[in-house]
Write a structure and sequence with these properties.
Pfam families: DUF4130. The protein is an alpha/beta fold. It is built from eight helices and eight strands. The chain is about 40% helix and about 15% strand. α4 packs across α5. The relative contact order is 0.08.
Amino acid sequence: MCLYTYDGTFEGLLTVVFEAYERKAWPTAIEQENLAQPIMFGQTIAIATGEEKVSRVWKGLQKKLSVTALKALYHTFLWEQPGFEMLIFSYIKLAFDSSQSIEDNYAASCVLQVQQAAKQMFREKHRMEAFVRFQKTADGLYYATISPDFNVLPLIIQHFEKRYADQRWAIYDTQRRYGAYYDLHTVSLVNLDLPQNQRHGAMPVNAFAEEEDKYKQLWQVYFDNVNIPERKNPKLHLRHIPKRYWKYLSEKQPRGLQARISQ
């Protein structure tokens, strides 16, 4: 057995690929160094991220894979499901070891799984872009919290940067405890050092602008008026707006709610 550990970054995972080829020691497992468990039999190899090694692996992949496939690999990394590191490694090794393109080789399980992961990421990305709701704070910052199934925050930043280019905003991922902050010029990834009892990323009720609750109530009234009871189709509604996204929507909150939308 050969366990490789890395720092949890995409660059770190590419460094693992380089080291595995350099050592001719193929991993049986790849884990983040802060999550790795000691193994009784076999070898544990701790890999430090190296910029030059990352560059060499990436340039090699660019010769083997299309831009679409490269994006799918990165999206699989953000997918974060159990075993995603070995899935990515298997895909890359197959690409490097093959003389022809592997992108349509769905007989290879790693190719099919990477495509499926990328599709799941695509759906989650677009749902987050559609369902994120900002609330204005007293100091003029538009703030939203999300808790997506996958780590899509890096993928939705560009959408909000373009759509809300004239206002300061922040989106905080309550599950992964980091966020994106736009200051009218650039977007920065930030980590909030929150007390244990506030790690859900919620802001105090009094932090929001006074008119925020009025806007929410207006939206609820609008939704009630455009909704036609005779045409109600719950199954279709749930298909387009799964229940796990309702927590983001003003029209789904209890009437007269004075606090922010709970995450």
